[in-house]
Amino acid sequence: MYKVWIRGKNIDEDKAVVNVMSPTAQFGLNVFEGIRGYWNEDEEVLYIFKLKEHIDRLLESCKLVSISTPYTKEEIIEAIKSNIIANNFKNTDIALRVTVFADGIGSWHSVENFDMFVSPIRRKRTDINNLKGLKASISSWQRINDNILPPRAKLGANYINGRYAYLQAKADGYDVPLFLGNDGKITESSGACVFIVKNGKLITPDITSSILESITRKFIIEYAKDIGYEVEERKLDRTELYLADEVFLVGTAAEITPIVKVDKFIIGNGEVGTITKKLLKDYLDIVSGKNKKYIKYLTPIKG
Ligand code: PMP
């Protein structure tokens, strides 16, 4: 049983309820963040990656969908810390959601009565020794865009667009979808951004390509440049994916996920790419506080 922080306190998960009459239950009106915490066994500390950036994005999502923020940035960070301590997480990696929801009776156009919950689970990082490349398909479902439902806001309802594409990809025998936007260019997957590697260069759709402004994407761009790779952010064609040397997804949940096939095209030699693997290994060292160069991006929590 986990403790969930809701409406100001940490309580048992089965007591944390949201009214069925609420716009959240009825219309999917909520904004949220998915955040990861990584256990550093040498230091006995749980490190949260880019906590402040996640809260900044949560507040921006609130602004875009006219959700008046119930708590300040500092109060949200305190709520998250208190929830991790209440759950006494030790010797484990975690994932948590911070969700701003519409409380009480209301409609899809309600502009009041918002509150927040923090819901954590134990979740292991990717096992680098057991890496599996995924098969992706270019979805026949189009990505939502800035003039329909802005992907830039991490709005619960946006994920129904992802649901259509993800379930279709699964039904067709693939692991994940990749969406095209209304301009016919590559956007992102249903819960992660995409990079290709071509001739040693990393390329990823730019932030006006109908994508969530991914925190992991931004970090991988910074890190890849730091270790000497050239990185391009620009519009990306689907055939560039087919002809790429490597393809991988990035995201808080996805971490760095290799893609070895896109539609009927084998990527590279069909194995997990060497640059992909190196980035994943380095990423896991960074987020768990083993590489001190990037320690400024980590918030340590000691129980
Ligand atoms: N795109 C979508 C649609 C997502 O849901 C996510 C996961 N939050 C991402 C990209 C990756 O974003 P981040 O790196 O901030 O987790």
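^ 4'-deoxy-4'-aminopyridoxal-5'-phosphate complex. The chain has a mean pLDDT of 97. The radius of gyration is 19 Å.
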